[in-house]
Amino acid sequence: MHTSNKLASKKLAEASLESLYRIFTVPEAPDSTLGQIDQSISQNLAGFLQQHIVAAERDLADIERDFADPHIPEQPTFVSDQIQFVLDKLVAQSVHISAPSFVGHMTSALPYFMLPLSRIMMALNQNLVKVETSKAFTPMERQVIGMVHHLIYQQNDDFYQRWMHDRGHALGSFCSGGTIANLTALWAARNNVLAPQGDFAGLGQDGLLAGMQHYGYKGMAVLVSERGHYSLGKAADILGIGRRSLIGIETDANNKIRTDLLARKCDELKQQNIKVMAIVGIVGTSETGNVDPLDAMADIAAERGIHFHVDSAWGGPTLFSDKYRSLLKGIERADSVTLDAHKQLYVPMGAGICVFRNPETLSSVEHHAEYIIRKGSKDLGSHTVEGSRPGMAILVHSGLQIIGRQGYELLIDQGIEKARAFADMIKANPDFELISEPELNILTYRYAPADVQQALLAAPVNLRKEVNELLNGLTKRLQKTQRGLGRSFVSRTRLNPVKYDRDPVIVFRAVLANPLTTLDILTDMLAEQQEIADSPAIQELTGQIRQRLRGTEHHRE
Amino acid sequence: MHTSNKLASKKLAEASLESLYRIFTVPEAPDSTLGQIDQSISQNLAGFLQQHIVAAERDLADIERDFADPHIPEQPTFVSDQIQFVLDKLVAQSVHISAPSFVGHMTSALPYFMLPLSRIMMALNQNLVKVETSKAFTPMERQVIGMVHHLIYQQNDDFYQRWMHDRGHALGSFCSGGTIANLTALWAARNNVLAPQGDFAGLGQDGLLAGMQHYGYKGMAVLVSERGHYSLGKAADILGIGRRSLIGIETDANNKIRTDLLARKCDELKQQNIKVMAIVGIVGTSETGNVDPLDAMADIAAERGIHFHVDSAWGGPTLFSDKYRSLLKGIERADSVTLDAHKQLYVPMGAGICVFRNPETLSSVEHHAEYIIRKGSKDLGSHTVEGSRPGMAILVHSGLQIIGRQGYELLIDQGIEKARAFADMIKANPDFELISEPELNILTYRYAPADVQQALLAAPVNLRKEVNELLNGLTKRLQKTQRGLGRSFVSRTRLNPVKYDRDPVIVFRAVLANPLTTLDILTDMLAEQQEIADSPAIQELTGQIRQRLRGTEHHRE
């Protein structure tokens, strides 16, 4: 009995093992649920998303009920059952990122070829940490880094011939996104500031404390405009200098860093014996898409021997445009530059790049191990924050080839021009107020009828603040209502416009990078906002605001 | 003339824009190059790889010539041309990671369903940094983190009910891989050690220097066995404590940390006023797959109030196995645990997880911003090193459902048992020497005929060192030759076996995680190594080694 039980259980295990092998060796049948989805995505992506993503918003707490079980199921689930679950519970309740009427995200529609190319990438499953697990993917990624380097720094052919595939150096670091790219740049900058000297083996070896003691610094700092991306604060935390050492410099009325204040702060810190390890310029602030005066910043950095980093995660691809490239003048003087491929290079999520003008800069973070990224190897892992990484560079490589400089130029130009047209549309509409003019393809605005706008500018400080606070509530509500309806989407953020003496002002934020977004779609979107604003609930709020403004006028009379 | 030129160029731009729209709106035709590849991968992945990956090795310098141009092409390239290039130059020269005879990598074959599922992920292109760009993917990822948490910590249902979807907390952090997972764990540990107190706002705000001064520490340290993964050294660099503060503790003959030395070092450092911010245990060292004595390490950490992190990037999934789970006893006492999904959860590259026993631990790295990951939101980005991230968790979720606990158990069990069988095969072969016994599914060995092994053990120290050095050259050459032939692949690494009094010994490293690797394949692989070893070139080297060993015997006579 016992033996036969054992035998039965052995047979069962063998049967299970057999069926387990099948999932590794037998493809999904074309007429299976998964096979059908696969074809439907391949043949009509927009249709698939339209059909399966439910437009109307479901409450998050409600969605969570479908993902409440912390237990890994004991028994295998049929592929078809799981896929049905994925369709009904996950796809249905995902966000329609690529919809042309969803202009609040920094990701947009993807070129069709990206999908089958991604399949090649997934099927090969290379690991870019080392040549041994990536082979040709390593030189390919080095070329992609080289191409982005050339886009920015335009060095001559000899330079790339010398450095692009050099085993001891890296012109940049390919990573999962702008956050890691910024971290990489500041990591390299920090380690170069506290470089080996005499009996100090360098920060990388001996640590921050020993480094600061060796060089006699009282502190370290990174300077960026108050519109700097939140990843910089996180980097300051991770790198050990602390968030308070990331110093936000005030911006002007156009959300650009005030270089007079930047220079002054540099000198102040120097007097306090606090070492500025990097100045960061922004090309396309996340909130308003503005570009810092890079040339002037480069001057300030150069005069003081400070690492100049440019975060062009969003706006870097503007360099493709003959017409608008000059907005970025000075970027070629940066010591390091971040650029996100999953934003305006139209690559799927998970691809960022940081390039360095000088091939030596990134050497300050170089590292090796025994079984991997050995010294003298060409393994890319010796200069990256991440270890194992997928071959996403294949998507960037193909994007650059298939779309080409001119193709990207068209994408950039039409985005900027669409943003200007949308800004004109808003300015022409008396019920809306443009808060930031688009410099690239991002703009912000809010619902504020002309009479309210006028009264607000004339109102005393306290009333203005109060009304702006009321308008903020209204904007928030309007944005959420529109999102909930599921037809269109703008994001929202909070700014401190100079116009209102830096009162916090919540705004709609439109990002116009999706080539499929037409002016008609934007007209409809604005009309929908108007319609929501005209609803009794919102009109009651607007009425209260008007009354509040009038009430004070009475007082003042 | 001028006007008509302008008009012509406008028309041209419109035509280009039109063709550009097409890549966003018109799917690849099924009979296009890309369409055909897509089908071929879907229907017969192994066949596709076999057909397109060239077996014989091409020189890397030669491959680099295909990726030498740093210029982004001005004009668009036809999709079909680029895809042909990808096939000929990239796919052909990639590494056949999933081949059953390639047992040197930590990535293996993928279940078929992962490919169409990846397409769904890519098509949706969600960004997990915030709910607004990921919706249901956020609770789904939280569930995946919860499931892995439960796998390790087995808390009760109330616990997960309370914490899994809590807006103020995260039970873990999903990321691109084990390196970031380890960095996340050590980041949290570091910030908890130098937590806010009195007028010190915490390391995250005030920085490492202020923190160490506030708490009066002379230094910080992380302790791990000398077999610790290189990502820990990198983390020590990035986090600012410096690589020298990552202290490697000697291992015993089985590559396990010597807990006596660990405890002693902790106490030594305390006396020197150096704060140990974490002790790291390893489950499956990269080189030998051994498991540290976690329970004893947990005791040491608990007695001293030190954060105990376990790096089970490789071996974590052993917990699925009823038979082998006990090897990991004590892991449930860890404060944080790293586990790579792209290793033994059989998910494509780019999926790692770090979980924390206590829901409060990760709060030390919590961060917020204005337009994103706002305070009180459930945005996952508030507790991650990375910012924008793809929805890879969908692949882990589906893997856990479709394969189930029992399925993963089978995968784990067969890997361990195959490794033992292969070890027996090596021990039975007089020409090979097993260097490390497989505890999980990794083992190391080298070519060293029985007489050489014997003479080596009897040899005086200097000769032994010299011969081991010669054998190292031989092993390296043998491994490279086999890799170059392209039929099979083992990796190599360098160990310091106690058997040889810690002489550096280069070894073959076999990782037996691919369910499609049979014992026959391993037999063939060993036979191929034997064949290479029997070649005149290698036999000459072996002859020299024998002579060298005999020469000294003469001397000693």
TrEMBL record, chains A, B:
Signal peptide: none annotated. The modification N6-(pyridoxal phosphate)lysine is found at K343. GO terms for biological process: carboxylic acid metabolic process. Keywords: Decarboxylase, Lyase, Pyridoxal phosphate. It holds the Pfam family Pyridoxal_deC. GO terms for cellular component: cytoplasm. SUPFAM superfamilies: PLP-dependent transferases. One of its GO terms (molecular function) is pyridoxal phosphate binding. InterPro entries: Asp_decarboxylase_pyridox, PyrdxlP-dep_de-COase, PyrdxlP-dep_Trfase, PyrdxlP-dep_Trfase_major, PyrdxlP-dep_Trfase_small. Its cofactor is pyridoxal 5'-phosphate. Belongs to the group II decarboxylase family. This is Glutamate decarboxylase.
